[in-house]
Amino acid sequence: MILVIDIGNTNSVFGLYDGDDLSGILRFETASAVSEKDYADKLLVFLESEHVPVSKLKGSIIASVVPEIDAVIKKACSICLKREPVFVSHEIDLGLKICYENPGQVGTDRLVNAAAAFKKYKQDVIIIDLGTATTFDYVTAVGEYLGGAISPGLKISAEALFEKASKLPRVKLVSPDKVICTDTASNMQSGILFGYGGLIDGLVNRMKKEIGAAPFVVATGGLAQLILPHSDTIDAVYEYLTLYGLKIIFERNNC
Fold it and tell me: Cys bridge to 88: 3, 108, 172, 231, which one at CB 3.0-4.6 A?
């Protein structure tokens, strides 16, 4: 079995792969003030809840976009598993050609998603990751990571609207019945959700036009299912694409 760990700005996810099966998942809030012991305890409780002894784990691999806690999570894994985890970077074998001016600037989560999408779809693909930020990444059918675009995440945008406009309330992220609404809360829901669907479709269509291809479009991340009904360009949602990418990178590097 393999332990895969995705450390994001807002949330982190532990996953367990038994062969090709994702057999266990734990999602929790990322906290920079948490100690290595706290992370180790969390990890051990997770393994116990899944009835997985430490001895059954082949190893662990981490994609992190929160460098200030990398040392803590590394130590926690070392304590629990008695071996150091593998950290994803552009310097290990991802199975991709990274066509980026400075590959070290690309978030490891984006590289992992790109590796996963290339492995799974074997065609030109656009990956949309709806998390704290919303990232758009383009991978060609021959495994070239071309880069992409970054926009503010849906929740960040909604929260900024509430914080910066004193007369606007905080609203639930649910779809109103129509676009032209007659109360303030529904007006905001319409603008946020339908507007975000339009943002996604606009960027995807611009990418398609720029490349001159018809790529497959996959969305991932915790907000992917929320936005799916409001986009005309998303072909599929794969919620745990990042975890799958971590698994295949671990295997590819014979970790």
Answer: 108
